[in-house]
Amino acid sequence: MPSVILNRRAAAHASGPRFQWWWLVWVAAGVCTFLCGAVLGVVSSGLSGPGGGWFSQILSPAFGGRERVIILAVGVDKSSDRGLADTILVLAVSPRTGELSALSIPRDSRVQVPGVGIRRINSSHAVGGMPLTIETVEVLLGLPTDRYIRVDVPGLVKLVDAIGGVDIEVEKRMRYRDRSQNLSIDLQPGWQHLDGTQAMGYVRFRHDAAGDLGRMERQRHFLRAVLRQLTGPTNVSRLPQLARAFVETVGTNLTAKELLALKRMVEQAGPEGIRAETLPGEPKMVRGQSMIELDGERVEQTVDRVLRGLGLSVEVLNGTGISGLGARVAAELEEAGCEITAVGNAKQKSDVTIVISRRPGSRRAERVAEWIGMGVISVEPEGDNPADVTVIIGRDFSRQAGQAS
What would the 3-class secondary structure string for 67-124 be? Predict the structure, then answer.
């Protein structure tokens, strides 16, 4: 039976330094979950007696005890009456296990908008508001939406100001002005403390070679800064300001207990424990317009992996120095039904085989360890790692296979 390392750092001497990856999406939903959860937590704690509606909601199981819940988070700008969907994020929540996954949809994705035709997905909100955006996302992903969060992007300025601003490392000089959208961006490179207006300029800047994909990367940095600020000790005194900003900015059909449950799950998982990916696509010019062309097969595979929780993706690293051993183990795992995301050499050689779960909990790693017949199990979540499990093949595996060096 594989042994278990409860301390996720305990295997560092054998596996070498962890891979460093940048965190992915979670802008609108992250702000909503933390702010609303904090505000509602204070409100609910002030109610007494089981007769209170909020109190009874909080006592009952969140999401009705469902196995998996899909939440659509949309950040809306004010470029038109209803506004374009500036940020689109689909969240998969497993209340029983506490697992969370997020799939970001590029705003310029070329999709079928029901009743309208082929358009950029961000136009769905300008045409039909949240109902049409929900329908468009459901058609694209082939997945029903259970809940939604709508965030007024200009209102995020108030939310950021309400938490006292954020510390962000601006990666380069950013200058842009759009009078039609009342948008003025003027930021210098380096670490800075940004107020709400400056932070929104950083998040929305997309006028460089990276375009919309670069803007999504900045959203990731912004969210990390927001999470750091929200979990700081100073925000208890800011709850009145947070409450006002929340009411003016956010619309959702999530109940009080569901928002509190989301807040707890996000806090317990931490940024590295939340799996997050971006829907794959390629930039393309269509009739003079820049769009993201999506591949139907890759969309389906990504939805199955990230949102439906189907399949198991594995990264195989050879820590023995024996040529071809990594490819051999990868082939065996592929025969067992795993998706192999990468095969390569570990940065350091290892005496023991280590099976690392890149998601919260050890059950995925335990399954892989059973398939290969050995493995010390470690839990080291990396939300932006496409692999659910990393296998570092040790010399003990080669000895068992009769290939001792």
Answer: CCEEEEEEEECCCCCCCCEEEEEEEEEECCCCEEEEEEECCCEEEEECCCEEEECCHH
pLDDT bucket at 120, cuts 50 / 70 / 90: very high
Strand partners for 177: 184
Look at residues 286, 306, 326 and tell me which one is the last residue of a structural domain. 306
Residue 9 lies in a domain: no
Domain extent at residue 328:
312-400
Residues paired with 307 in a beta bridge: none
Using one digit for the tens of pLDDT, what is the confidence trace for 121-136?
999 999 999 999 999 9
Residue 196 sits in the same domain as residue 249? yes
Looking at the fold, whether 295 and 326 belong to one and the same domain comes out as no
Q: How far is CA 165 from the centre of its chain?
A: 22
Domain of 390: which CATH number?
Answer: 3.30.70
Does the structure show a pLDDT above 80 at 29? Answer: no
- Where b means 16+ CB within 10 Å and e means fewer, 165-202 reads bbebebeeebeeeeeeeebebebeeeebebebebbbbb
358 and 248 housed in the same domain: no
**pLDDT exceeds cutoff 70 at 245:** yes
Contact present, 257 and 58 (Cβ < 8 Å): yes
Residue 18 covered by a domain = no
Average pLDDT over residues 343-360: 92
Q: Rg of the chain's alpha carbons, rounded to an integer?
A: 23
Residue 86 sits in the same domain as residue 201: yes
Last residue of a domain, one of 272, 306, 340: 306
Q: Three-class SS of residue 331?
A: helix
As a whole number of angstroms, the distance between CA 44 and CA 256 comes to 9
Is the pTM higher than 0.70? The answer reads no
Is residue 119 in some structural domain? yes
- pLDDT band with cut points at 50, 70 and 90 for residue 335: confident
